[in-house]
Amino acid sequence: MILRSRGRDGPGAAAPAQEQEAPMTKVVRCACGLHLRDTDETQLIARVQQHAREAHDLDLNAEQVRAMMEIEQE
């Protein structure tokens, strides 16, 4: 005899819909007091690199910027 469950957890039940997580906001805090934040890491890197060049005459690569990033806690 084969028992089949007709409940939500039985075989053939649809997998629960995964909840979409809100994108994480990342922030880079510059020593000069400027805080740059974005949910798009690529855009944040570009903005930090631009700020570093214009305000501090520094050329930062993407890995250097990633090392400065923090996940912003809400």
Apparent shape: elongated
Number of strands: 3
SS element count, helices: 2
| Relative helix content | 25-40%
From the alpha carbons, calculate the radius of gyration and give it in angstroms.
Answer: 22 Å
Helix/strand class: alpha+beta
What does this structure look like?
With 74 residues, the chain is of the alpha+beta class. It has a domain of 46 residues. 31% of the residues lie in helices and 14% in strands. A three-stranded antiparallel sheet has the order 2-1-3, covered by helices on one side. A hairpin with a 5-residue loop joins strand 1 and strand 2. The model has no long low-confidence stretch (mean pLDDT 86).
Layout: helices, strands, pairs:
Elements: E1 26-29, E2 35-38, H1 41-56, H2 62-68, E3 70-71
Antiparallel strand pairs: 1-2, 1-3
Which characteristics define this entry?
alpha+beta, three-stranded antiparallel β-sheet, elongated, 2 helices, 74 residues
Please outline what is shown here:
This protein has 74 residues and is α+β, with helices and mostly antiparallel strands. The chain has two helices and three strands; from the N terminus they run ββααβ.
